[in-house]
Each structure stands twice: as C-alpha cells, then as structure tokens.
Amino acid sequence: MESIHQQIIRQKLTIIKQLVTKDKNGEKFVLANRDKNRSFMLEYGLLINDIKDILLNLEVDDYYKGPEKDEAGYEGEIWIFSPTFQDSKLYIKIRLYNNRLVICISIHEYGIY
C-alpha cells in the first residue's frame, strides 16, 4: 500500500505528465535554456520530444525530493527526480507552476554539474 507521501508524488506526476502530453508550442511545458540542459541533449543526441518522453516515463520510485520553494524566488513547487536513462542516473529539477505549467529547470547526468 502506498504511503500518503507516495500518493502525493503520484498525483503530481499525473499532473506533470498531463501537461507535458497536452503541450503544443510551449504553453504547458518549457525546457529552461541552460548550458547544462543543452550539453546533456547534445551529448545524447536528444530533441525536445525526447526530453518530454523522459518526463512521461517518470515513476514514483524516481522521486528524489520535493516539493520545495524555488531558491530563485519564482512561484511554484520544485520537484526533483532521479531516473535511470541509458545506464546513467539523471537529475531532473521541475517547477510545477499552479498545476498549469511544467518548467524543466535542469536535466542532466546526476553529479555532473
């Protein structure tokens, strides 16, 4: 039986996945334009749809921590996940803004940056 904490994570993942799935032109999902994100995508030959696929495959067991407040002061909840991708552990930091927008702040190999 899932704990309350696991149920909350599952609910948030459901919202994240719904938003990513419904996204057309960045109105529900945004990948932050950061060097580490671009480097990760370049290293693995990934496109934005590949990043979306990684997020759509997140599971409760991939949860690392959250929700937290954004250190930069932006609104929304910060959720961090660490799934396995091509034999590497990833670090994925997501801001969920008002259950209406998913911003992938960071996605890269864990411990690289």
Return residue spans where pLDDT drops below 50 for at least 5 consecutive residues: none
Query: Can you tell me the number of structural domains?
Result: 1
**Number of helical segments with 4 or more residues:** 3
Task: Estimate the helix proportion, in percent.
Answer: 25-40%
Return the CATH architecture. Answer: 2-Layer Sandwich
How can the largest sheet be summarized? 6 strands, mixed
Number of strands: 6
Anisotropy-based shape: globular
> Which class of secondary structure composition applies to the elements?
alpha+beta
String of helices and strands? HEHHEEEEE
Gyration radius, to the nearest Å? Answer: 13 Å
CATH secondary-structure class: Alpha Beta
What fraction strand? Answer: 25-35%
CATH fold name, please? YaeB-like fold
Mean pLDDT: 94
Please name the defining characteristics of this protein:
32% strand; six-stranded mixed sheet; 113 residues; alpha+beta
Would you mind describing this structure in some detail?
By secondary structure, the chain is of the alpha+beta class. The chain has one domain (4-109): YaeB-like fold (2-Layer Sandwich), CATH 3.30.2310.40. The chain contains three helices and six strands, in the order αβααβββββ. The protein has helices spanning 4-22, 35-44, 48-56; strands spanning 29-31, 63-69, 77-81, 84-85, 88-97, 101-109. Strands 1, 2, 3, 4, 5 and 6 form a six-stranded mixed sheet that branches.
